[in-house]
């Protein structure tokens, strides 16, 4: 699953009054999230 798709799922869940928790994210996606500045949106460090 791509990072953009994950962010879209999270947005759709938020719009529906739900939430999604990311429990395990592959390291390459973590690196992309860091470079893209979206780690806070994903709730990762």
Automatic annotation (TrEMBL):
This is STAS domain-containing protein. It comes from the Bacteria. Residues 1-45 form the STAS domain. Transmembrane segments: none annotated. SUPFAM superfamilies: SpoIIaa-like.
